[in-house]
Amino acid sequence: MSGFLTKETEHYLEELFRQTDPLLKEMEQFAREKRIPIIEPGGAAFLDIYLRSLKPKKFLELGTAIGYSAIIAANALPDDARIVTIEKSADNLVLARKYINRSGFQNKITIAEGEAKELLRGYLAEWDCIFIDADKEDYDELFELSLPLLREGGVILIDNLLWHGYTASSEVPASYVRSTEIIRAFNKKLASGDAYHFTIVPAGDGIGVVIKKSIQE
Ligand SMILES: C[S@@+](CC[C@H](N)C(=O)[O-])C[C@H]1O[C@@H](n2cnc3c(N)ncnc32)[C@H](O)[C@@H]1O
């Protein structure tokens, strides 16, 4: 549930964009049953169409979980695109490997095991698009590490910036207060940054889009 659309609109969009791919449908069901967070249907539809338009040759994801959004990206991107997805949870890595092998995209998607904050320090600045979908308390650091790794004009996508509607709400459940504060501060920082253009698309749970400015801009 987005928490920021009316229930009717949410239901309408869910029906309109219901997943039809059998493997992705199975993964949605599995994630629901095991309570593993994956990108919401509206966010998945946005990611799919945005990547089809942007066509990044080098796509990096921070937060694989079971591989659902990595497979969405692999479906959307041309055959010569390279996808690297980073995951730190050993349990999720087993599941992601299983699902990515079943998807047939095991040559297009490389799974990198470990803490993204450490792995990113060893990466080269070559990425066209980076998708951040990790622990919320890591967002700011992951963003700061990602920006220098992005080519000029490259895009960082960030999930959950409307955080079930709590970023805009005065009534936040106790268990969400800390994470909501983190995302509010992060959004504020992004909105006032000079090195990039930024907006939030109210799709899924709110997808941030950051475009790195060129030196001339
Ligand atoms: C929201 S889930 C990712 C969902 C996935 N992108 C999708 O939509 O299918 C977040 C995942 O990121 C992993 N994660 C969180 N913080 C991380 C970090 N700093 N480094 C590596 N993995 C991280 C978690 O273990 C979890 O599996």
Walk me through what this model shows.
This protein has a single domain, classed as Vaccinia Virus protein VP39 (Rossmann fold, 3-Layer(aba) Sandwich), CATH 3.40.50. The protein has 217 residues and is α/β, with parallel strands linked by helices. A 7-stranded mixed β-sheet has the order 3-2-1-4-5-7-6, with helices on both faces. Helix 7 links the parallel strand 4 and strand 5. Bound molecules: S-adenosylmethionine.
Instruction: Write the H/E string, N to C.
Output: HHHEHEHEHEHEHEE
| Global outline | globular
Residue runs with pLDDT of under 50 for 5 or more positions: none
Rg, Cα atoms, Å: 17 Å
- Amino- and carboxy-terminal Cα gap: 38 Å
CATH architecture: 3-Layer(aba) Sandwich
The assembly state of the depicted protein chains is single chain
